[in-house]
Fold this protein.
Amino acid sequence: METAAEAHPFLLIHEYIQFLVKCPTSTYLRVGIATYAGLRRHQKALKVTQVCSATAMVYFHKFYFENSSAAGEHHPSVVIAACTLLACKVENVMRSVHSIAKVLFPSDDDLPRRAHQIQRYELLLAQVTDFTFSCPHPYARLGNFLASLDDEVAAEDARKRLQSLCGQVLNESYACPIYIVFEKKQTLWIHSILRVAILAARDEGVLLDTTRLLDRFSSSQRNFIDIELEAFRCFRLVLQIAENAPLVRAVDALLCEESVRSV
């Protein structure tokens, strides 16, 4: 199998060395950001949807979570190619391993060998996920809820801006493993996305009836437990690395609200 010694195309040398030796959190997140950015950049060429890319990134994080002690032995470019292949099958997007290899490894002079390698990693992924491939993303449920809002909650322009911010929050989140923490807590996850988006919108001066909006989605929300708080701190670091200052401030405000509520 190809190791991380074959430099990741988006990974700086000093980051690669850290990744190979001990993989601190900040370095892993930089790998996640770069890998996700590369995948999204190739979405059109791969002819895959955003949901398919999101599923691939969930598999990517699960793979490294299960193989954290030997992270440097598995090249991120090969892992994400296998994740994309498996995600296409799960999301009913029919793409061959050869077409994926051709897009993600355009300079490879032995594509059949590369395709075979990707397929072997796909088998490893199946074991890592315990053959449970479903990834219930909140795109449809969140979109339907936002579409149901009316002028009592916010004016049309404000609703459109909120929808855009929710999309940003959700899309950016797949660069880190936060989905794994909230995978079986979809209502809480969507509620959290709404809260971050609302805080970002408020920072921009967008007028929203926050209480009514959140109550319409779910009126019974609990405080975050420790692992959920840590997941949001991880997400904050992703946004900080990506230099998304508005969403960093929104997550900071969310964490501040949680600290006040827990007192």
Summary: The chain has two domains: 13-128, 139-261. The domain at 13-128 is CATH 1.10.472.10 (Cyclin A; domain 1). The CA atoms of residues 173 and 235 lie 6 Å apart. The chain is about 70% helix and 0% strand.
